Amino acid sequence: MAAASATERTVIENCAIATVDAGGTEYASGHIVLAGNRIESVGAGGAPGDLANVVRRIDATGHLATPGLVNTHHHFYQWLTRGLATDHNLFDWLVALYPTWARIDEPMAHAAAQGSLAMMARGGVTTAADHHYIHPRGAGDLSGAIVRAARDLGVRFTLARGSMDRGESDGGLPPDFAVESLDDALAATEATVREHHDPSFDAMTRVAVAPCSPFSVSTELMRQGAELARRLGVRLHTHGSETVEEEKFCHELFGMGPTDYFESTGWLGEDVWMAHCVHMNDSDIAAFARTGTGVAHCPSSNARLAAGIARVPDLLAAGVPVGLGVDGTASNESGELHTELRNALLINRLGAHREAALNARRALRLGTYGGAQVLGRAAETGSLEPGKLADLVLWRMDTLAHSSIADPVAALVLGAPAPVTASFVNGRQIVEDGRLLTVDEDAVARSTRDEARRLARTAARG
């Protein structure tokens, strides 16, 4: 960023602020000053009157300012297969949908990524992760298409470059033509990291190494994938302990449960995060806490697929980093992360800890700072603090839906979905009054509809 633009300031005033910093600092009425792509100051009352080069002032009366939401697990391509297999558990759902997913190509992947990102961004997401693990032969540059969609929308992005090398002929679920060989998967993953990963503080795109799951990849892909990630200095991501069927599969195939299997292949550590982690015992949780392994909690998807209730209060009490995930929109059709704040709180209160499981502020922390921790970006985003990246959201709280709720954080988490008046990523506004500024939403809707229909026709032809 040029020196001149770095001094340009945006001043936001007169809003309630939940900083989600280590002390949980909040202001009933305060200000935020953005300088270039960084947060310069946050505090009570109005901004200093002698600020130089203020290019914009926002009167945010009636709003709550929070860090931008951080989505830690998704499958963008599933935007094209929403509403199918609605009464299935995970394994049956995968069997039903893999034959369709195996027909995806580059234009489909790009359209699906646009749809997924657009829906999240207009609902307050500023950082998103996509776990893309289906790479059918001849499908084109799927990773490039997804990265391009995130760049065009202006969302901070982690591509978890997934892979599978266990097809139907090897006892896996996906068709053989939709999986890669061990060597091809490793080579393509390394190429993706080298082409797209940016390790800088204000990076808009990062890449993680992400074999799909224990039941769709070989042990060698898990082991060598971990070695590859650490050689390249990037993070690792996979699915873990999602269902009781997965637990049974691991015991039958490997002679141990998922967590012990992950540890045996090098898949526990501060550079690892896993999706779901529903079926974990005390020793599993202790292993994650000891190693700093993170968890992407996906409450809506877990409920949609009847997977169970993750032990989030116990994970947090043990010191495990936990963030929130939308998961793929074939198992969470709304595709919105802000609804996961509410669902995380409500679903976890159905578990053993009941009303003490989570409160509104802990739910907001899961969706912001917790997600940044899980993605390895807590030093850069996830809270509103001077020096951090200017990723934040202004939620409107003075409409019929929220105006009679005195506590704005409770209103955001427990109330109806709050309108997003403004969302900033890297200091750039990407949403205004609930509409995206970076892409044409109606054009994205048409594109995703057309590509979904084309995918359905292609799959029907077999």
From TrEMBL:
It holds the Pfam family Amidohydro_1. It is an enzyme of class 3 (hydrolase). InterPro entries: Amidohydro-rel, Metal-dep_hydrolase_composite, Metal_Hydrolase, MTA/SAH_deaminase. SUPFAM superfamilies: Composite domain of metallo-dependent hydrolases (SSF51338), Metallo-dependent hydrolases (SSF51556). Coiled coil: none annotated. One of its GO terms (molecular function) is 8-oxoguanine deaminase activity. Keywords: Hydrolase. Gene3D superfamilies: Metal-dependent hydrolases (3.20.20.140), Urease, subunit C, domain 1 (2.30.40.10). It comes from the Bacteria. Residues 65-428 form the Amidohydrolase-related domain. This is 8-oxoguanine deaminase. It comes from Streptomyces anthocyanicus. The lineage of its organism: Bacteria, Bacillati, Actinomycetota, Actinomycetes, Kitasatosporales.
